[in-house]
Amino acid sequence: MARCLVTGAAGFIGRSIAAELLTRGESVRGIDNLLTGKRENLAGLEAMEFLAADLTDPAACARACAGVDTIFHEAALASVPRSVQDPLSSNRNCVDATLNLLLAARDAGVRRIIYAGSSSAYGDTPTLPKHEEMTPNPISPYAAAKLACEHYMRSFARLYGLETVVLRYFNVFGPYQDPGSPYSGVLAVFCQRMLAGEQPTIYGDGLQSRDFTYIDNVVEANLLSAAAPADKITGRVMNVATGTRITLNETFAILRELTGYRGEAAYAPPRTGDIHDSLADIRLARELLGYQPCVDFREGLRRTVDWYRKGA
Ligand code: UD1
Fold first, then answer.
1. Would you say residue 143 lies in a domain?
2. How far is residue 274's CA from residue 137's CA, in Å, rounded to a whole number?
3. How many domains does the chain have?
4. What share of the chain in percent tops pLDDT 90?
5. Does 310 reside within a domain?
6. CA of 67 to the centre of ligand 1 (A)
7. How many angstroms separate the CA atoms of 172 and 221, rounded?
8. CB of residue 79 inside a 6 A radius of ligand 1
9. 248 lines ligand 1 (CB under 6 A)
10. Is the CB of 251 under 6 A from ligand 1?
11. Is 29 within a domain?
12. Is the pLDDT of residue 311 over 90?
């Protein structure tokens, strides 16, 4: 019987968490509806029990939760622009899915759920860095959906005694992030295009900034959350990031060095629903979890470019 359940296990973040859990000798079950997750991401995870099923199906949630102690809930339909185009799908795959999972977890006696929140919850507030005490101000349907799930986490902690914890991820990147969709994260897209000698497009003037967070930091925060004493983390929301930010223009310049791409970037109008700047205050995760970013932006980007280069 699996002790850990990873949702979205065939996706970028889920597969990375599952891989580390297996390395640490945990028994792992994964679930993924393969809408944006990919079967090929399961390579190397053969020791994981895998369910190709959808969290919007309560029976699938019940099967997934049976016998489980801790859930790492990474499944979602990521992307701000996708949610602007299709808010209903975004809601179904984030909110409906999460509520089904919570109900199944409660009924199966799961002890702890660690939820993948999003920095988009903060919205375009001028205050930087963003800290957890700030009033959320979601702009996109994606941000609203991810935030709604945070509230469900807290509600289930208070009402049903589930140990829920929310990690608000800031622009995660690294190996296994899908570069091939119009909704892919910017660094995955840029790495792939620039390695192929194709021109990347910067939406806006490139002065927007992000606290880009390498995947290993996110995996580490999840494992720390799984191990933390319940009274420290239950019902809490924590930023998971690096506490530094960089503009897209600067990022493009570093990627030119790393990829050998010699061209310029194309510029196009800013995307609707985008926020301009994002930077995390990571003191709370440090205090409650002992979290410390283990891989900085440049090193993370170097490893990421290497990974895409090998894949190409
Ligand atoms: C947002 C959330 C993030 C969430 C992610 C899920 C914020 C601050 N972050 O990321 O927490 O996990 O959605 O999808 O809200 N861009 C280009 N060219 C491209 C692609 C993107 O210039 O080809 C630009 C975008 O316009 C944006 C920036 O790069 O300004 C980052 O975009 P993206 O990688 O999609 O992430 P966010 O929308 O910031």
1. yes
2. 13
3. 1
4. 96
5. no
6. 37
7. 12
8. yes
9. yes
10. no
11. yes
12. no
